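Whiteboard transcription, Tuesday session. T.W. wrote the structure tokens on the left side:
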């Protein structure tokens, strides 16, 4: 098994010792109820569109789900750290950090449904990079999230798929969270960036072009999943089934009403405000267009589906082990509880 020790060390420290730095978080207070209520966390991306739609529509409350808190995190790795807290019992999270949190940090979670496929891409300055091999050219500056994130894993997959020099590429990568990567793109400090959606599509506002999507790099790639803590699954299986039902309903609605979903997404992400804060912190007058058109463009690069199979999860587990991001592969069935969909 190939192992990249430095990257593994950083991944473990990011998941186990991260200080839960949150780029944006908001709490929606719920009335006291005799029903069990708990915290949910999501990533600050359109990967969590189903959760945003369900919250806006009131579908959680309609099914008796009482959310004590509803928080957003800049990256899946920060969210994975939050899952170690007792109050966060459910999350919309990229599959890669979910697996790492389970394998490396011992966070006892179960994957109960899928939420989307794809949702990541390589954006480039077309004046500098016209083909993926140009990433190895002298002076080309490439950005990516921290080691062990889903986008980082996709970058490694691109290195494999296109036969690039791994040591050369990884040695040059500049590591930042997605909002800082977007700021670096806008201010001319990067020539290329591996980003999650919606951030990848927003980079097009600043003259970058989408060179590769996850569809190009990893056909069939699972993006995010709905996870719950083991405690919730054991003690409140009806709530877990309700969460899965809401996820199914919201996903179907997104696919049937893409324009309305994009409008909801733009409104929610604007209210959460991470993009605006990043622009102000960088002293920028132009902000990326978090609007319905941009969100629709981004959402078109995802496949919103709840379908997931053990074989697909196993493929990701095995690849993470090959990269050295987890010590050893394990059976996908250990982390799956898809019976909640029945």
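and on the right, the sequence the group agreed on:
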């Amino acid at each position: 098994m190939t192992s990249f020790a430095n990257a593994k060390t950083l991944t473990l420290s990011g998941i186990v010792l991260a200080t839960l730095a949150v780029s944006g978080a908001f709490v929606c207070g719920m009335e006291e109820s005799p029903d069990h209520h708990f915290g949910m966390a999501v990533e600050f991306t359109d990967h969590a569109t189903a959760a945003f739609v369900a919250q806006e529509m009131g579908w959680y409350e309609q099914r008796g789900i009482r959310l004590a808190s509803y928080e957003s995190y800049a990256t899946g790795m920060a969210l994975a750290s939050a899952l170690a807290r007792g109050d966060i019992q459910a999350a919309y999270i990229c599959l890669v950090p979910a697996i790492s949190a389970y394998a490396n940090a011992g966070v006892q979670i179960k994957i109960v449904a899928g939420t989307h496929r794809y949702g990541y891409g390589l954006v480039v300055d077309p004046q500098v990079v016209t083909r993926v091999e140009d990433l190895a050219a002298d002076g080309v500056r490439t950005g990516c999230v921290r080691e062990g994130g889903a986008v980082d894993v996709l970058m490694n997959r691109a290195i494999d798929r296109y036969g690039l020099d791994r040591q050369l590429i990884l040695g040059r990568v500049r590591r930042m969270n997605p909002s800082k990567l977007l700021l670096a793109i806008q201010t001319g400090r990067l020539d290329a960036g591996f980003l999650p959606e919606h951030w990848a599509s927003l980079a097009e506002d600043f003259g970058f072009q989408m060179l590769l999507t996850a569809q190009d790099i990893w056909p069939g790639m699972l993006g995010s999943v709905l996870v719950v803590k083991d405690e919730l699954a054991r003690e409140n299986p009806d709530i877990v089934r309700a969460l899965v039902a809401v996820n199914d309903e919201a996903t179907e609605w997104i696919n049937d009403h893409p324009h309305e979903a994009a409008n909801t997404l733009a409104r929610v992400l604007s209210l959460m405000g991470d993009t605006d804060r990043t622009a102000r912190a960088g002293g920028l007058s132009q902000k990326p267009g978090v609007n319905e058109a941009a969100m629709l463009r981004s959402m078109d690069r995802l496949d919103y589906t709840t379908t997931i199979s053990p074989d697909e999860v196993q493929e990701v587990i095995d690849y993470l082990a090959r990269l050295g991001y987890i010590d050893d592969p394990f059976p996908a069935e250990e982390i799956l509880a898809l019976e909640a969909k029945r």
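Someone added at the bottom: The domain at 120-217 is CATH 3.40.190.10 (D-Maltodextrin-Binding Protein; domain 2).
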